[in-house]
Amino acid sequence: MTKVVWVDRESCISCGLCVSLAPEVFRFEDGKSIAYNPSGAPEEKIQECIDGCPVSAIHWQEL
């Protein structure tokens, strides 16, 4: 199975950690983070963003 990163925008507090760690994957849109390019970085780098998110708003989704 393939996994894709996504951001729970309801939980996002716009701290910017994911955007600063992986700008090739995350960006702000309407004041909240989105994963505009889910395959833009290695899984390890995306996992750093998931682990570092202070409100656990970033998740893997199995496809």
Tell me the number of strands: 4
| Rg, nearest Å | 10 Å
Number of helices: 2
Number of domains: 1
Strand order of the largest sheet: 1-4
SSE arrangement, N to C: EHEEHE
The overall pLDDT, averaged over residues, is: 97
* CATH top level assignment: Alpha Beta
> In the CATH scheme, what's the topology name?
Alpha-Beta Plaits
CATH architecture: 2-Layer Sandwich
**What is the chains' assembly state?**
single chain
Structural class computed from helices and strand pairing:
alpha+beta
Helical percentage:
10-25%
Largest sheet: 2 strands, antiparallel
Describe the structure.
This protein is an alpha+beta fold. It has a single domain (3-62), classed as Alpha-Beta Plaits, CATH 3.30.70. The chain is 24% helix and 29% strand. It is built from two helices and four strands, in the order E-H-E-E-H-E. It has helices spanning 17-21, 43-52; strands at residues 3-7, 26-29, 32-35, 58-62. The strands form two sheets. A two-stranded antiparallel sheet has the order 1-4. Strands 2-3 form a two-stranded antiparallel sheet. The protein is globular. The mean pLDDT is 97.
